[in-house]
Amino acid sequence: MSTTTVTKASSGPVGAGPVRPVRSDADTRIGLRANLRHIGALARRNALQIKQDPESMFDAVFMPIIFILLFVYVFGGAISGKGNNDVYVNYVTPGLMAMMGMNIAMGVGVGINDDFKKGVMDRFRTMPIARSSVLIAKIVVELGRMMIATAILLGMGFLLGLSIHTSVLHLLAAIGLSAVFGASLMWIFILLGLSLKSAQAVQGMAMLVLMPLQFGSSIFAPTTTMPGWLETFTDYNPLSNLADAARNLINGGPVAHSVWMTLGWALAITVVTAPLAVSKFRKKT
Questions:
Q1: I want to staple 248 with a disulfide (CB 3.0 to 4.6 A). Which of 21, 67, 253, 283 is the partner?
Q2: pLDDT (tens digit, 9 = 90+) per residue, 139-162?
């Protein structure tokens, strides 16, 4: 708890002048440079934890391999026709880039909840650091895991026949767009991790959110064969916008609408959930 000292006025007899509070250093606002330094230190700590526990990388390493093999060889023939798996690879791989962000984001909420159970977050809250830096450092490290998962996904895609019909810059733009949207989703799951009582509850709630968004989208199949009400839902589904944007950036096609919709969703989600998450982090008991 910060302390406040009281000093007398600079002129006048003792007891005659007004007094004014002088804020201690602990009360002063943390500057941008200090905040960035705290984020870097906390991100390094989280990265070292992964190094000490390499099993925590299993989902980022194996999930993209399993998903692309599963969907290409189970659904590829049915959607693109037998012997045309390479066509489906070019369709589904950009969509799976969008899916990676959601699955990695779910792990952030579970990890935050587990850290509170262990008392790690209580120790951070006693330190003279910005509360947001603890959460942002988590997001920075999870974005690193997401980039690793995306690189493995693309590597598998190239092995299975993925081809870039635009340019490397367009591919990097698709990866960057997925990272921006993935970061915004992490704030949702951080808020869930801070609000729910157990990691199991976070996982259960996350699946309720993930399943309709993932399968009610254009990630795995074109939406034109869906019922009218479901096709309408997919039009407003942010994952559909992200999948379509990444797909057109890689394969060629109009991207402006999908890109702006994805960025709009990412901004709206972050503006709403990030302040709520930071506030919940401060007040959580």
A1: 253
A2: 999 999 999 999 999 999 999 989
